[in-house]
Write a structure and sequence with these properties.
Number of helices: 10
Shape: globular
Radius of gyration: 17 Å
Largest sheet: 2 strands, antiparallel
Strand content: under 5%
Strand order of the largest sheet: 1-2
Distance between the termini: 22 Å
Structural class: mainly alpha
């Protein structure tokens, strides 16, 4: 890989890291479709292994920034991470069983479905929480004195996290793009707490997926690309975490919907062969 290509991947990583951390998605949902476009001849398991490795570094850097901002619900992050790990390993193992064209089509449909959900769903209140019985109450006060009180069902959260772990590793997106909306709309987490906590969970989920790809041998073809992308996302994640302090929760959700929709259309065009 030449220097120009390396610089391009560093820049791509920076943009994905900044935007992904801003919305709590880890950058994988931005990075994976772009990798699919840049490397149409690579098998899905190679691209997902690269994306998950980059998501791990993005999530690790973003978690550090969010920890300083004191917006992470650590007890929920630990519970949800433990629930997600088995699904993450299984999802990584199953990626190689799906042909690349079918993988692209599935990915595009899921992106558009996520965009529609976010665009038409009414915003959730910060303190009403889930309507599921067995609620746990949390209160988070960040470094700037902002306080959020919310209620949620730990059992529901663990079950959802297991499914998110599978989907995230299978698709190579890290899971934040799925987990944040679920935490906000189904569990009742405040948007800013959800984005911060999601990053902490992402670090554990993506690492387990990457380790599975390393064991199966799928990752060795993407080491050099991962290195360049990781340099960019580590820097970009710090910027994204700081920008999140200035962006309202509604704006973050709109950014999620817009990003999902645009990338969903692009990936579907790739799957159908209309846009190569």
């Amino acid at each position: 890989m030449n220097e120009v290509a390396s610089l391009g991947l560093i820049g791509l990583g920076f943009g994905a890291g900044a935007f992904g951390t801003l919305i709590g998605a880890g950058g994988g949902f931005v990075l994976m479709p772009i990798l699919m476009v840049l490397y149409p001849g690579d098998p899905a398991e190679t691209l997902t292994s690269i994306s998950l490795a980059v998501v791990f570094f993005n999530a690790l850097s973003g978690t550090e920034a969010y920890a300083l901002a004191r917006r992470i619900d650590y007890r929920s992050a630990l519970l949800f991470s433990a629930a997600a790990l088995p699904g993450a390993v299984l999802g990584a193992l199953n990626t190689s069983a799906v042909p690349r064209r079918a993988f692209d089509a599935l990915f595009g449909v899921l992106l558009l479905a996520g965009a529609a959900f976010l665009a038409f769903r009414r915003p959730a209140g910060n303190s009403k929480g889930s309507k599921i019985p067995g609620k746990t109450v949390r209160t988070i006060t960040d470094a700037h004195g902002n306080t959020w009180t919310y209620r949620f069902s730990p059992a529901l959260g663990a079950g959802l996290s297991m499914l998110v772990g599978y989907a995230s590793s299978f698709l190579g997106i890290g899971g934040g793009i799925i987990h944040v909306p679920l935490m906000v709309y189904l569990l009742g987490f405040p948007v800013h707490v959800a984005t911060a906590t999601s990053h902490c969970i992402l670090a554990a989920m993506s690492l387990s997926g990457v380790m599975t790809h390393i064991i199966t041998g799928a990752f060795h073809q993407g080491v050099h690309r991962t290195t360049a992308l990781a340099i960019g996302v580590v820097i970009g994640a710090q910027l994204g975490a700081r920008l999140s302090e200035r962006v309202g929760g509604g704006a973050i959700v709109r950014l999620l919907a817009g990003g999902l929709g645009l990338l969903g259309v692009r990936v579907l065009l790739l799957a159908t062969g209309v846009w190569k």
